[in-house]
Specification:
Low-confidence stretches: none
Organism: Ornithinibacillus sp. 4-3
Order of helices and strands: HHHHH
Structural class: mainly alpha
Helix content: over 70%
Number of strands: 0
Membrane topology: Multi-pass membrane protein
Shape: extended
Pfam family, one: LrgA
Oligomer: single chain
Strand content: under 5%
Keywords: Cell membrane, Membrane, Transmembrane, Transmembrane helix
Protein name: CidA/LrgA family protein
Mean pLDDT: 89
Radius of gyration: 21 Å
Length: 133
């Protein structure tokens, strides 16, 4: 039973890896300023949305990766620790940029959510189905 689970898990990891590699190759081939892994994620999203890839086909591997996502940030954090002089010289401007961009993202997300919620409410009052919004 464990062997079967391991093979399924490896197959799901292979699907995710393959989409990542396709994204990397597309980014290099098209010579666009979007990272290949982002293109791979967009490709995965489109394939999930269209039903070409079923969620069950990648569920175990993606859940595992998401559960252990924090470990992928450890090398970055350790690398940042070596940049102490930069943070001493540019710490305040960096903090303003980080907090400003975070605030902008939060405000934009809230505004879009409120817009969509109000459109859904109006559509519901008119008897229009959700997928037409």
């Amino acid at each position: 039973m464990k062997l079967k689970y391991a093979l399924i898990f490896l197959g799901q990891l292979f699907i995710l890896w393959l989409l990542n590699e396709i994204g990397m190759k597309l980014a290099a081939w098209l010579d666009i300023p979007i990272p290949g892994n982002v293109i791979g994620m967009i490709l995965l999203f489109i394939l999930l949305l269209t039903g070409v890839i079923k969620l069950e086909w990648i569920n175990e591997a993606s859940s595992f990766l998401l559960k252990h996502l924090v470990f992928f940030f450890l090398p970055i954090t350790v690398g940042i620790m070596t940049l102490g002089p930069i943070f001493l010289n540019y710490g305040i401007p960096l903090a303003f940029v980080l907090f400003g961009s975070a605030a902008f993202g939060i405000i934009l997300t809230g505004a879009v959510s409120q817009l969509l919620a109000s459109r859904r409410k109006v559509a519901k009052e008119r008897g229009i189905r959700d997928h037409n919004i």
